[in-house]
Amino acid sequence: LVFGGLILMTRVWLGFLRALRDNPGFSVRRVVLVVVIWAVPLLLAPPLFSRDVYTYAAQGEMVSHHINPYLYGPNVLGATSFNAMNDSVWSGTESPYGPTFLTTDGALDQISGHQILADLVLLRLLEVAGVALMVAATPTLARSLKHDPAHAVLIGAGSPLVLLSLVAGAHNDALMIGLLMAGLAVAKRVGTVPGVILCALAAGVKSPAALGVLFLGWVWAG
C-alpha cells in the first residue's frame, strides 16, 4: 500500500511538473496549496522508512537531563520509552548532530513534559518548519537565476523525495536545508551577514551546511 501510494504520488508529481512547464507563470501560492494537501496525510501517519526521529527524541531527553550526547549514546537512558523505540544500531553511538539541533531538541523535550508521543509530534513539526523555510526561500533563489518560482517550488519542496523523507520520515535534514536556503535567500535580499548567520545555524544542525558559509564568504570577498 505504501509503495503503491509512492508510485501514484510520483506519477501525479511528474504530471504536475509537465503542466507547469507548459503553462509558465502559474501561481506559487497554488503550488504550495497542492504540496500542503499532499503533505497532510504524511503528517498524520507514523514515521516512514526511518526510525531516526526516535533517536532524536532520545538525544533530546539526554540533553534535557544534562547528559552529553557527544560522550554517550541513547542506551545511557536505560529501560525508558525514549530508549525503547530508537534504532538499536544507534543506541550506543554518540550524536553526530550540531549544537543548533541538539539545543532545540532538548528544549522540545522539556516543552513536551518528557512525554515521548508529544516530543515526536514536536520534532516532526520542527522538520515541517524546515520545509516551510525551503518553500519561502525557493522563489527568491529561483527568480535570481531567472527560473519559474512555481516550478522550482514543486521540484524542491513538492518532490516525493522531500515529502517522504523529510516530512514523513521527520529527518533533521529538513531543518538544515531550510536554514541553509533561507540564509542564501536572505543574503540575496537583505545582506551577507544575516545570510551567513542563518547558514551557520544550518551547519549547527549538520556540518555539510557549512558550505553555505564558505560560499557566501567567497562571494562577499569578491
Written description of the protein model:
There is one protein chain. The longest helix is centred in the middle third of the chain and has 29 residues. The radius of gyration is 19 Å and the shape is flat. It is built from 11 helices and no strands. It has 222 residues and is an all-alpha fold. Helix 6 packs antiparallel against helix 8, helix 9 packs antiparallel against helix 10 and helix 10 packs antiparallel against helix 11.
Summarize this entry quickly.
By secondary structure, the chain is mainly alpha-helical. It is built from eleven helices and no strands.
Output the keywords.
222 residues; mainly alpha; 11 helices
**Biggest pleated sheet:** none
In quaternary terms, these chains amount to single chain
- Classification by helices and strands: mainly alpha
Radius of gyration in whole Å, from Cα?
19 Å
Order of helices and strands: HHHHHHHHHHH
- What's the helical proportion of residues? 55-70%
Contiguous runs where pLDDT drops below 50 for at least 5 residues: none
The number of distinct β-strands equals: 0
Distance between the termini: 53 Å
Mean pLDDT: 91
